[in-house]
């Protein structure tokens, strides 16, 4: 197994990009292997690591189909629907509560 080159933060050569940078360019890795690794040192923990991919080998992002748009819309609606009362909360329900704020804090709603 070949080792990948490791670069320090902000010292990566041109022609390599992270997944986010590729996405901003309208590209995706497209199955290619990691070309290099970027490390950002931290004081008390291990370094942050980002994988770099070749921009030349990257492929364009696949377009969203109507079926994908519909699935995304259903998934977002499910994140807004309260499992307790079944209403659309109008916002994404916090995972920490697991229900809308009206169901989580009923005594505060009565006082208001």
Structural summary, described in words:
This protein has helices spanning 19-24, 66-80, 101-104, 106-111, and strands spanning 6-8, 16-17, 27-28, 36-40, 48-54, 59-60. The protein is of the alpha+beta class and 112 residues long. A hairpin with a 7-residue loop joins strand 4 and strand 5 (48-54).
What separation lies between the terminal Cα atoms? 64 Å
Percent helix = 25-40%
Determine the oligomeric state from the structure: single chain
**Overall mean pLDDT score?**
92
Structural class: alpha+beta
Instruction: Work out the radius of gyration.
Output: 22 Å
Which descriptor suits the 3D outline? elongated
Strand order, main sheet: write it out.
1-4-5-2
Total strand count, please?
6
Indicate the low-confidence ranges by residue numbers: none
């Amino acid at each position: 197994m070949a080792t990948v080159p490791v670069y320090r933060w902000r010292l990566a050569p041109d022609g390599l990009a992270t997944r986010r940078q590729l996405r901003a360019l309208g590209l995706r890795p497209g199955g290619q292997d990691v070309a290099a690794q970027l490390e950002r040192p931290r004081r008390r923990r291990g370094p942050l690591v980002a994988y770099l991919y070749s921009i030349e080998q990257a492929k364009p992002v696949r377009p969203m189909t109507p079926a994908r748009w519909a699935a995304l819309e259903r998934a977002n609606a499910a994140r807004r629907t309260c499992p307790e009362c079944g209403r659309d909360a109008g916002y994404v329900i916090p995972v920490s509560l697991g229900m809308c704020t009206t169901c989580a804090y009923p005594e505060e709603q009565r006082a208001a």
